[in-house]
Amino acid sequence: MGSQELSDITNFEYLKRDFERRRPVVLFVGTGIDFPSYRNGRNFSWDDLLNHLLTHSIQMILPYDESSKDIRDALTGDLSLSYKNSKLQDQVDQALTRMTKSTIVKQTLKNTSYVNLIQDFLYRQCSMDDLRQACDEFINSHKRVCVYYSLFQLADMVLHCANIKAVVTQNYDRFLEDAILLLSEKYEHDGVSFIHRKPRIVCDWKNDDFSIDSFNIYHVHGYIPRYNEIQAPKNNSIVLTLDEFYEDSRNVYTWQIASQLHFLSQYTCIFCGLSLEDYTSQRLLHYVKEKHKNKLYYITATRNASNDTITINKIKNQFYTKNGMTVIYDNQGFNHIYKLLGELKDGK
Question: Which 8-state DSSP code applies to residue 232?
Fold first, then answer.
């Protein structure tokens, strides 16, 4: 079946064949890999982050009184589901896009303030103790269940698939790095065979390191460390606002653009947990769609979805195939597709 067709999981066979042939692979990941596999009160989506930041911005823009309460709630996504408030929420969502919200945040909170708020948003919800517990759950369940299932499955792939050469992440956090380190410790302690790889955070092409035990994770939108880290790597910058997205995509000589173009044109790439709605990703795909030598796989899934939802997803997936991607669509849900990805280890 060709990549233009979107019937269940069929295109997974192409990816499986590439792993059997040991094709060099680069993972492109987004916030979707951090989502908990079952509800536990944690929200890591881009919209959740923006609403968290906007809550603090509004305090500086709107004086607090009862007359502004509904507007405040709508701006931060806290409205109840009443008919009146739903209409107001729709109005606000249409007027203020994600990029508009992010620009307001940066202008009102300034650099140091919003970076600290992002740090608090990420690591308050997922501490190292939370990840250790999830790692134990992943190992003890024989890799069948874990609160951060997709995250640990990808970390496990990095430690068992020699053909995975790097990760490009749009995430600010270090959850994937920590998952790799925690699994490495477990495997070392239990005498399990794995590839010894030390994750290296790359925020600048000059700091690149291809040493034998180093595994590079490129934070192309910037990196925010945990509380106990003294500082972020040098030349680290956070991409948050519309002008920064434009600047990134306009300047082809930045390390962020150069590294992504290199990987997209020379490696088999797997996109996980990404919506690809930002302009930089769309332009990069447009640039390489006629030039890339290997397949670009886009992972997506639904579960127990209505026929209307499935149809909408198939229509949306035409955007990805139009840009030269091979869509792997699993109608059994994301846990199932990440389980299948975990079974790709060195072609087994």
Answer: P
Q: What is the mean pLDDT of residues 175-180?
A: 97
Tokens of 271: 């996109």
Interatomic CA distance for residues 100 and 242, integer angstroms? 7
Q: Tokens at residue 100, please?
A: 């508009």
Phi then psi for residue 342, to 5 deg, are: -65, -20
Task: Out of 24-28, 243-247, 259-263, pick the least confident.
Answer: 243-247
Task: Find, among 347, 325, 205, the residue nearest to 268 by Cα.
Answer: 325
| pLDDT tens digits for range 125-139 | 899 999 999 999 999
Residue 325's φ and ψ, nearest 5 degrees, are -95, 150
